[in-house]
Amino acid sequence: MTLQHAACIDDLAQMARRRLPRFAFDFLDGAAGGEGGLRRNRAAFDGVLLKPRYGVGVDPDLSVSLFGETYDYPFGISPVGLGNLAWPGAEATLAGIARDNRIPFVLSTVGGTAIEEAAAAAPCWFQLYVQRQEAVSRDLLRRAAGAGIRVLVVTVDIAASNTRRRDIRNRFVIPFRITPGLVADLLRHYRWSLATLLAGPPSFVNLAPYATAESGQSLAEFISSAMKTDLVWDDIRRLRDQWSGPLVVKGILAPEDAVLAVEAGADGIWVSNHGGRQLESAPAAIDAVAGVRAAVGPLVPVLMDSGVRTGEDMVKARLLGADVTFCGRAFYFGMAAGGRAGGERAMALLAEDLRRVMVQIGCPSFADLDGRWIWG
After folding, report:
1. 10-residue stretch averages of pLDDT, the chain, 376 residues long
2. pLDDT at 125
3. Is residue 233 within 8 Å of 260, Cβ to Cβ?
4. Are 48 and 320 contacting, i.e. CB atoms less than 8 angstroms apart?
């Protein structure tokens, strides 16, 4: 299959599976435990049915306004840890694709691209994992603000380490631990291996400067202990005091937590179960959207990710209360399948599918979507 013949994001995922070493694909594709949460995310979308209205020919307006910016499409690119595992330079490339298509791109604290480099490539948001050392969190915010980043996304759903069985079975660690199995995997996927060798192996570049300050502590040791997993709402209040731009709290499922986040100073709520990667028995994110919207009211922006693969998914999320949806795996599968051309193909597939479904249901504007288009 070629990129031009890829009909959907799942096709790009299959191409990525063939092109990536097993450990890299499994890191991107895998989820917590037995991966029931990952499957539930998709199944829940399938349970929402649309009510098409005909005889109302439309040329839909897909634009959306969020935090003082107008975007051409109501979806963005989620933060993905070690995104450059998909393909060297994937994060910066996707930031450029987001810029060219006027959609938001979010860089992860544990991405493989420096804050300053990503922001220089394109306007982007920054996702923060709060650090145990407050000075490190403060400096990350300083760097983000200095690079011109406006929107801060604070992730709160990492209260405990997860069990991703694929990574355990693959003995996946950063930096890579050379084993006969790893060498064989790399040789089978020599294009990825050569490109990665030339670009340099993926690393946690945004946290590397702080690890060197810890006497005798390797980067891997620093990363494993650096994140503040025992977050409380006072931590969000402190970040609110330190950040002058829009602040979004990501990883919310319970309506009660959405209210507490807003009370702590959040400008937006990001409904997410981390793509099924943290708690296997968490509800599907799409099932949590309506409750969160009801809890925070109509004025607080609600964002959503976890399981979004099609334009119909985006419409369903909007009907239930999400202003904007985000995709992580979808875009990184594209990069893995074909580099920049694959990332652009993912963008085109999502945009074309969204436009198609809007025409099919007879809705003139994404902003107009509401319960009238839900069947039942």
Report:
1. 94 98 96 93 97 93 98 98 96 97 98 96 96 95 98 93 87 83 90 92 90 62 82 97 98 99 99 95 98 98 98 98 98 98 99 98 97 92
2. 99
3. yes
4. yes
Q: Which two tokens stand for residue 4?
A: 């031009």
Residues 6+ apart with CB under 8 A from 278: 32, 157, 158, 162, 251
Which neighbouring-strand residues pair with 193?
none
CA distances from 352 to 8, 20, 247, 311 (A): 10, 27, 30, 8
Total number of domains constituting the chain: 1
Residue 37 structure tokens: 């949460």
Is residue 372 in some structural domain?
A: no
Question: CA dihedral in degrees (259, 265, 269, 272; nearest 10)?
Answer: -90
Look at residue 326 and give its three-state secondary structure. strand
**Structure tokens that stand for 254 in this block:** 């319970």
320: domain CATH number? 3.20.20.70
Going edge to edge, which strands form the sheet with 75-77? 75-77, 324-327, 302-304, 268-271, 247-252, 152-155, 125-128, 106-108
Q: Work out the angle between the directed axes of helices 285-296 and 36-46 (0-180°, nearest 10).
A: 70
pLDDT at position 218 is 63
- Both tokens assigned to 317: 């999320």
Rounded Cα gap, residues 360 and 357, in angstroms: 5
Does the predicted model carry a pTM greater than 0.90?
yes
3-class SS at 124? coil
Model pLDDT, residue 216: 56
- Structural domain containing residue 47: 3-366
The whole-angstrom separation of Cα 98 and Cα 161 is: 31
Tokens 């949806």 correspond to 325
Helix (H, G, I), strand (E, B) or coil at 271: strand
* Rounded Cα–Cα distance for residues 175 and 231 (Å): 27
Q: Where in the sequence numbering do the catalytic residues fall?
A: 274
The most distant pair of C-alpha atoms in the chain lies apart, rounded to whole Å, by 70
- On whether the CB atoms of residues 16 and 3 are closer than 8 A, the answer is no
Is 376 part of a structural domain of the chain?
no
> Would you say 1 and 17 are in contact if contact means Cβ atoms under 8 Å apart?
no
99 lies in some domain: yes
373 assigned to some structural domain: no
Residue matched to tokens 């394109």? 122
State residue 220's pLDDT score. 65
DSSP string, 32-80: SBTSHHHHHHHHHHHT--B----S-----B--EEETTEEESSSEEE---
